[in-house]
Amino acid sequence: MIRKIIAFLVVFYFGYILYSFIAVNFPFGERPLKGVAAHYVDKGIEEEGATNIVTSIVTLYRGFDTLGEVTVLFLAATGLGLLLAGMKEEEKEKPEPTLIMETTTRYLFPLVLLFGTYIFIHGHLTPGGGFPAGVVIATGYFMMFIAQKQFKPSEYLLSATESFAGTLYVIMGLLGLALAFSFLANVMPLGVPNTVFSAGIIPVIYIIIGFKVGSEMTGILAHLKEA
Amino acid sequence: MPYEIYGLTVYVYVGLIMLGVLFSLVRFVAGPSAPDRVVATDILTTITTVVLVVLALFFKRQIYLDVALVYAVLAFTAVVAIARFLEGGL
Amino acid sequence: MIQKTIGEVFLIIGGIFMFLASLGLLRMPDVYNRMQTSTKAVTLGAMSSILGVGIIHPAWLPKCILIMLFILFTNPVSAHAIGRAAYRTGVKLWKGSVCDKYGSCMEDEDE
Amino acid sequence: MNNLILFMGFGLSLVLVVATFVVWLSKDLLVAILGSAVVSLVASIFFLILQAPDVAITEAAIGAGLTTGILLYAMKKAGRYEDD
Q1: Is A95 on the interface with C (CB under 8 A)?
Q2: Of D11, D28, D81, C52, whose CA–CA distance to B44 is shortest?
Q3: Rounded to the nearest 5 degrees, what angle is found at the Cα of D29, between the Cα atoms of D23 and D34?
Q4: pLDDT for C62-100, tens place per residue?
Q5: Higher pLDDT residue, A34 or B5?
Q6: Domain membership flag for residue A19
Q7: Is residue A58 a part of any domain in this protein?
Q8: Cα separation of A112 and A141, whole Å?
Q9: What are phi and psi of D81, to 5 degrees?
């Protein structure tokens, strides 16, 4: 009991501190930007050609961080697979999914994959990008896992996609290093902003990240389902 | 401000939605069994989709509709998964 | 202007339906009755509100119709899954219920 | 009108706090998972109110199914009720 009271007080204090920050800084967006942020907002479109400036920060200005994040995700997926390897669920009677669930998910699955594709192709124009798109695709696979009697994606294909996408990401970075003397430089033509074929390598990188995250998350879910 | 006022209607509308959220929250906290809470979560999910669309209207940005679309497509997955867990078929 | 008014009317209809659905969720006696609100009233309210937004901004109408279609497509499935799971886990019907078709159907399956 | 959004923010933050308390105090881990799903819903709305659609879409995609799924699979292994 006393532990809960102490925990409550700590949480309350923390919330009060956060609230006081918000109360002081509430008129956000009204101050002039300074330093790097001002450069990103003013010069972002003409330098990198992406209408959605967040994507050009994520994939180009801070692209190396994104590579690190993808690596962390890869390590997490590999570690989970290693941990769960050899664990096998005992066979028992399970209630089967109904016809309604099976039919709906069967018709919805291609639409979900299409929607994920839309998100990562439009990453540089609308909100979204590789990571949400990959997660959407993985959720589509999860939908099939829970509502179909027999559904098993090929494990070989999943890990092949994942490894191939990861390698391709590093190759894109090295291409920038070779042609423009900086890792992940924007070496492709920028095109006209606000069109699909613009922003140089951003769509390419987002397609790669979408495939990679999608296959990794699906792999995690498949491992967890079997364990 | 990026959004404009649509008269009294919008105030009434937001008030109705907030009352709906409040009632669902009461059912979520008080619900005697787990399926009650799942139903409350389902309703909250649908209301969230609507709130996202209405926020896109307030901010006058068409691209915000994408977020609502994500919930409209995927939100039922969680509910179906929990239902399958309850009946033991996950 | 008239178009904006029509859109606001749709918005208000949707808001009223969602409010009534939540009231039903609060007041109904058992899970199966509460589930009706999540299937029917909330779906109608959400679709009406989104249609209202689409009418206020006609350029958004295609995407709004897409959202409406997905809500119409997925909400009944989740309600069906909850109802089935609640029955299978042994949630009792309200004492005023007059008819239990699914129970008799399951007894037939067991025999 | 700023105060409309502010009113919405107050109502939704009530939902956020109450759902967090449900997650914290519930002994039934299934209810805790449901509570985290509700927190994720409201957080997505807040990210959109704060004009961060990229973060909102990521939160929506993760919270709408994947987190629930992973936690449910983990709970199936670990048991549903938390014992003191």
Answers
A1: yes
A2: D11
A3: 55
A4: 888 888 888 888 888 888 888 888 888 877 777 777 777
A5: A34
A6: no
A7: yes
A8: 9
A9: -105, 140
Nearest Cα to Cα of residue A101 among B87, C90, D46: B87
Query: D32: distance to nearest CA of chain A, Å?
Result: 17
Total H helices, total E strands in chain B: 4, 0
CA distance A115 to chain B (A): 9
Give the total number of structural domains in chain A.
Answer: 1
Terminal-to-terminal C-alpha distance of chain C: 65
Spatial separation of the C-alpha atoms in residues B38 and B85, rounded to whole Å? 12
* pLDDT per position as a tens digit, D1-54: 567 777 888 888 888 888 888 888 888 888 888 888 889 888 888 888 888 888
Whether the Cβ atoms of residue A63 and residue A176 lie closer than 8 Å to each other:
no
- C-alpha dist (Å) from residue A214 to A125, B28, C95, D63: 21, 32, 48, 15
Which of C78, C84, C102 is the mutation pick for testing A, counting most A CBs within 10 A?
C84
Q: Give A14: exposed, middle or buried? Use CB within 10 Å, 0-12, 13-18, 19+.
A: exposed
0.90 surpassed by complex ipTM: no
Nearest to B74 among A94, A96, A136 (CB): A136
Domain boundary assignment for chain C: 2-110
